[in-house]
Design goal:
This protein has about 190 residues and is mainly beta. The chain is about 0% helix and about 55% strand.
């Protein structure tokens, strides 16, 4: 068992029967009363952020978490995604709600899967911050219409809908931010 003195950013703990990741913490020693630790913790199952206060010295249970890189293989049905561990070639099925941006997954792309080490249970699947995808469909842009930062809708090879600048055409490859789904740049091939 550990105590609040062992807190650090990124540490995973068991609290109230759930798994939580410490986002930030601050030790506070007021003039009166006992010391305490003010934390922001994120639930690993629901991604809910919670502000919580622990009394200094209280015992906590640390949970061992491992991140492993996996390659996306295929999608089965509407909410099951199959990945393969690149080191031992074991395959695993991940539910859609555990993936941060499933609309940008394409065959062969990689993602980091976070596992509860003792139970070998997947907790989350995170794509890289940026992905390169080919534009399957978009309306042709008009030449010279660049007075403003106008955007038009486009469909990527994975079926995701994004907004791109007017100069992007069908067949172009673009870099997309997986966190907010924004177009970043056109990729030269």
């Amino acid at each position: 068992m550990a105590t609040t003195a062992d807190f650090k950013n990124g540490l995973c703990i068991k609290h109230n029967g759930d798994l939580w990741k410490i986002e930030s913490f601050q030790h506070v020693k007021p003039g009166k009363g006992p010391a305490f630790v003010r934390t922001k913790i994120r639930n690993l199952n629901t991604s809910k952020l919670l502000e919580n206060t622990f009394t200094a010295g209280v015992k906590i249970e640390i949970v061992r978490i491992e991140n492993r890189t996996h390659q996306f293989l295929y999608q089965e049905g509407s909410d099951t995604y199959h990945f393969m561990n690149q080191k031992n070639y074991e395959q695993i099925a991940i539910q859609k709600h555990l993936i941060n941006a499933p609309q940008y997954l394409k065959e062969g792309s990689t993602a980091d899967i976070m596992f509860h080490a003792e139970k070998e249970q997947p907790l989350s699947c995170t794509l890289p911050i940026n992905v390169n995808l080919k534009i399957e469909f978009t309306e042709p842009g008009e030449k010279g219409n660049t007075a403003t930062n106008a955007l038009k809708p486009a469909t990527t090879e994975t079926g995701a809908e994004i907004k791109v600048p007017l100069f992007i055409n069908q067949g172009d490859t673009v870099k997309i931010d997986t966190i907010n789904g924004n177009y970043l740049e056109r990729v030269k091939e």
